[in-house]
Amino acid sequence: MSEMHITTKGLNLFYHDIHVLRDLNVSINARQATAIIGPSGCGKTTLLKCLNRMIDLVPGVRVTGEVMVGGQDIYANGVDVTSVRKRVGLIAQKPTTLPMSIFENVAYGPRIYGAVSKKHLREVVEHSLQIVGLLDEVKDRLKDPANRLSIGQQQRLCLARGLAVEPEILLFDEPTSSLDPASSLRIEKAIEVLKTDYTCVIVTHNLSQAKRVADHVLFMLDGELVEHGTAEAVFETPQEEQTQAYLVGGDI
Questions:
Q1: How far is 87 from 169, CA to CA, in rounded Å?
Q2: Whether the predicted pLDDT of 251 surpasses 70
Q3: Rounded distance between C-alpha atoms, residue 102 and residue 100, angstroms
Q4: Nearest to 8 by CA among 50, 46, 42
Q5: 53: left (phi over 0), alpha (psi -120 to 50) or beta
Q6: Domain containing 175 — which CATH number?
Q7: Residue 252 lies in a domain
């Protein structure tokens, strides 16, 4: 049986008076790729941001219930939110490079956390770029501004920047929605490699992508978890009528 890396218990989220997430009990396997699917506005990205407390940055939000990451309730009193975000990295929908070189973009996190050795930083940068399949493309121009890269390369650079701080979990919020098919495929291949060592959680509207990369699927609707299971089970033999309707593109 797979080890559970993330579990939520009675997770609710309110935005002012609006009940956005409703009593979510979710389990996410370690070292697998889990896709969160569902129509726009169902709470997918909100759930994702609860998993590393980036949701804290949204004014007017209140969270109740538990989110356990490796046995620690990240919403318990006294939890160091910075350490949570180091353990659980978030790759945003739109790549945002820092206004510095390719090298310094990846080295930024390790520097913040105390890495000072030039040799160590270079090893971390090159290893992170290698994992996402970017090193060969940029190794001769690491001093160039990061914003000179293509959008697809910038997204992989952001992924490398996230990897450089040695997280346990990687959250992807529609990571290929702004990319061309070739760049999207590179991100998907990177996730395939990464999930052998990292727990990957992917929010996607692309059902074909979810079928390609996911081991496990969560289907959400109106802030509730409707169905979850292996990707094969959810896509081939969904148990809930609402899941079936969503997968065939019908009314829910």
A1: 6
A2: no
A3: 7
A4: 50
A5: left
A6: 3.40.50.300
A7: no
How far apart CA 56 and CA 66 sit, in angstroms, is: 15
C-alpha span between 111 and 240 (Å, rounded): 48
Condensed to tens digits (0 to 9), the pLDDT of residues 201-212 reads: 999 999 999 999
Specify the pTM. Answer: 0.92
- What residues make up the domain containing 110? 4-247
Q: Looking up tokens 């997968």, which residue turns up?
A: 247
The tens digit of pLDDT for each residue in 97-139 reads 999 999 999 999 999 888 778 999 999 999 999 999 999 999 9
**Count of domains for the chain:** 1
- Tallying the residues shown for the chain, one arrives at 252
Q: What is the mean pLDDT of the chain?
A: 94
Return the number of other C-beta atoms located less than 10 Å from residue 236's C-beta. Answer: 10
H-run or E-run covering 36: strand 33-37
CA separation for the pair 25, 7 (Å, rounded): 7
Q: Edge-to-edge strand order for the sheet containing 216-221? A: 88-91, 169-173, 199-203, 33-37, 216-221, 224-230
* Residue 106 C-alpha from the chain's centroid: 18
**Residue 175: C-alpha distances to residues 151, 186, 192 (Å):** 11, 11, 14
Q: In the chain, helix, strand, coil percent, each to 5? A: 40, 25, 35
Determine the pLDDT at residue 41.
92
List the alpha helices (DSSP H) in 80-150: 81-87, 102-112, 118-131, 135-138
